[in-house]
Structure formats: structure tokens, C-alpha cells
Amino acid sequence: MNEPAGTEPVRTEPTAGGTDAPRSGLRNPAAAVRGIGAGGLAAEGIVLLLAIRPVQVLGAHLTGLAVTVIVVLAVLCLALAGLMRHAWAWWAGAAVQVALVACGFVFHASLGVLGVIFGLLWGYLLWVRRSVLR
Questions:
Q1: What is the mean pLDDT of the chain?
Q2: What's the domain range around 81?
Q3: Which among 54, 53, 103 has a CA at the least distance from the CA of 77?
Q4: Which key words tag this protein in UniProt (predicted)?
Q5: What are phi and psi of 29, to 5 degrees?
Q6: 124 domain-assigned
């Protein structure tokens, strides 16, 4: 075959329908997807913990309840990062994003902005998961 120099042909493997589908190129695609999901949740947990003080400086008089909710969401993110091998953890991660957006309405708008940002990231990670594991 006439392949351009420096390129490799795309490897395919047979699927159940008998057609050849391109491989992802990953040795263990499920582990790679779990890794990006865990990384996203771990980053979110750290950002939430670090966001407490700046939100207070922005003028939000966070009560003890608000700080507790933020810390609980951060710990939940970090715990779910370790549980990504379970399929339900992906949907629990999506629920955390919804809860964070709700905190934006209840406590301070900046938490809602964080919720939207991480919600978009989580949606992208779910899309990557679906396309890689397909």
C-alpha cells in the first residue's frame, strides 16, 4: 500500500457484526477512561476546597452550612474519584455537578459558575467515555 512516510495504517479488529472498527490504540481503554474521570473529580475536589476563601472575599458571607456543603461536595468528589471502576460512580459524578450548580443559586453565584464549568467538563468526559468504550 502507498502510505505516506512516517504514518502507520490504522489497525482494525473485527466486531460482532463482522465489520472492522478502528481500535482506540489504548492497551486498556477502560482503565484510561477511569483515569480521566478520576482526574477530573480529583481536580474538582481540590478546586472546591481552594474556592472557599476566594468566595468569601468576593463578598459572600458563607455560613457554616455553606462551608460544610462545599467541603462535603469536595470530599464526595475525592471519594468518587476512587470509585470510578463502578458504572454508578459516573452518574454520581454527574449528580455532584448538578448539586454544585444548585449551590450557586442557594449560596453564591460563583459556585454556580464552578458548577457549570465542571459540568461541561464532566459532559465531555462522559462523551469521551462513550466514544472510547464503544
A1: 85
A2: 30-133
A3: 103
A4: Membrane, Transmembrane, Transmembrane helix
A5: -60, -35
A6: yes
Three cell numbers, residue 20 = 472492522
Cα 124 from Cα 57, distance rounded (Å)? 31
- Say how far apart CA 32 and CA 24 lie, in whole Å: 11
Q: Is 90 a member of any domain?
A: yes
The residues, any chain, with a CB within 8 Å of residue 33's CB and separated by 6 or more, are 128, 129, 132, 133
Contact 55, 62 (CB under 8 A): yes
Residue 87 amino acid letter: A
pLDDT per residue over 15-28, tens digit each? 555 555 556 677 88
CA distance 60 to 109: 9
- Residue that has been written with the C-alpha cell 462522559 in this structure: 126
pLDDT digit string, tens, across residues 62-91: 788 889 999 999 999 999 999 999 999 999
The grid cell for 12 is 482494525
| 92 domain-assigned | yes
Q: Which of 115, 134, 107 is nearest to 77 (CA)?
A: 115
Q: What sign has the CA pseudo-torsion 96, 102, 106, 108? A: positive
Can you tell me the distance from the alpha carbon of 132 to that of 111, in angstroms, rounded to the nearest whole number?
31
